[in-house]
Amino acid sequence: MNPFEDMRLFCQVMESGSFTAAAEHLGLSKQFVSRRLIQLEERLGVRLLNRSTRRLDVTPLGQSYYESALRLLSEVEQVEQGITGQNTDPRGTIRLSAPLSFAMAHLGSLLPLFLQRHPHVTVEVDLSDRPVDLISEGYDLVLRIGTLEDSTLIARRIASVQRVYCASPDYLALRGTPQSPDDLADHECLPYGHGRQVQWHFKVDGKPHTRNVSGRMRVNNGELLRDAAIAGLGITYLPNFIVAQALQDGRLVALLEDTTPESLTLSAVYPQHRQSSRPVQALIEFLRERLAGGC
Question: Which residues form the HTH lysR-type domain (predicted)?
């Protein structure tokens, strides 16, 4: 029995969320996958998964085994690539998580170009605005916008992300154009996210300034907020890659430009055991190259 194959099976079950999905991904039968994992648990003398008719739950020991297995499999992959002379030609699968709006604006055109450049690389993409856990969810790479939490993960800067305050011409004709952040108290705002109060950030006289804003519509999706602003429902604050076309064709007008704070940072975040991964590093360098002018 090959312990590395058992590790791969277990990792695939963890990433797929079920024996059935893992078996379909690997081209094996569900019964074979289940039997191999039972044999793995018997060999280790521990329970890795709690099974029920509705779901699989990983045990604390199973989570520890999964994280260690990911590191070991990554090291084996790098050794094999070096021995076979493939270290200059990336190959393998990248499990990538990226924000939905950013991905729709950029990755749809960039990933095909990346895959054409690197024909031995496969990319599995999950689009989500929620903060994912790279280790427990098995991602090789996550793209994040904004301030990063301190962690053992590695982060590399990809590009800057400029945000814009904007509203439709019709809204401004009806309600007037704000001249300072304090004027927003008299306006309808369309904040990103949930909660009664959201803070918008400004730079006034060279100093950071924040203001609590609220509105009748709060959404955790930039495209919906952009469309609401175009429809005349209020002022919104969004990344340039979401509103650039509407600003260009006049459906939206930029506001408070002299108080716009510094750009956010788009970062590539990955676990330490993927630092030597040729496919991961190749994708990071490709994105840095293509997005060097900002996004």
Answer: 1-59
Check residue 6 and give its pLDDT: 84
Closest CA to 73 of 55, 58, 93: 93
Interval 92-132: pLDDT, tens: 889 999 999 999 999 999 999 999 999 999 999 999 888 78
Long-range interactions of 202-209: CB distance < 8 A, separation 24+: 202/256, 202/259, 202/260, 202/261, 203/259, 203/260, 203/261, 203/262, 204/180, 204/259, 208/261, 209/181, 209/259
- Are 6 and 26 a contacting pair, CB within 8 Å? no
Alpha-carbon distance 74 to 66, whole Å? 12
Kindly state the helix (H) or strand (E) to which residue 222 belongs, with its residue range: helix 222-230
Q: What are phi and psi of 214, to 5 degrees?
A: -150, 165
Q: Write out pLDDT tens, residues 237-263.
A: 999 999 999 999 999 999 999 998 888
pTM of the full predicted structure?
A: 0.70
Contact 97, 128 (CB under 8 A): yes
**How many other CB atoms sit within 10 Å of the CB of residue 283?**
26
| pLDDT band for position 90 (cuts 50, 70, 90) | confident
Burial group, residue 105, by CB count within 10 angstroms (0-12, 13-18, 19+): buried
Radius of gyration for the chain, computed over Cα atoms and rounded to the nearest angstrom: 23
